[in-house]
Amino acid sequence: MNDTRTPRSLRWRLLLIGAFVLATALLGLVPGLLPQLSQAHQRVLQGMALGAGGTLAVFLLLLAIPVVRNAYFQLLEVREQDIFRDKRILWLAGIALVLYLATLALAHWAMPTNASPALVIAIGLLPILAVTLYSASIVLHLRQLDELMRKIELESWALATLVVSQGYLVAWVVMQAGLVHIDASLALLSLGVWLLIVRTGFYVWLMRRYL
User: Fold this and answer.
1) Domain that residue 198 falls in
2) Residue range 125-132: average pLDDT?
């Protein structure tokens, strides 16, 4: 495999993550860009920028290791061959991502203090729709895989769910002991992100184990 060839799906992902980190950092650290932002919202943006930037930095450091880079690039190439065969997978996952980001924006900056219960419920249902669409894209993807690849997909999601759930439990115990303070809303918003990160790690490990 050509060590310098970057899969096309990784290129736009890195660009999107980099743009997100830059935008949240600017909005959170530079005063006056959004005058209507409260200090609490600025701290949320700073936390999002720090978390996403840290994750991106760790990811790039891992890609600097040839063995890890080659394994991950092979993983993406295999996934691209299946995903780009059915455009519905990309559309469903893309719409789910847009709905997720729209929920974040509406909940933090567009929700009026005197919002009606109907508006709150409508915005609260957006993540459910996003998860439904993303789940549908996963089901379509699984149907296109052979038995071994389907086994790797399901095991990686199962292991990620177990590890992240136990990690949240440990975080709760540490918080109850007063050792650290974690913002509850930020922790809930980060749940899906942690699932995707941990699941990717297990996916690479299972690919190297079975293939």
Assistant:
1) 146-211
2) 84
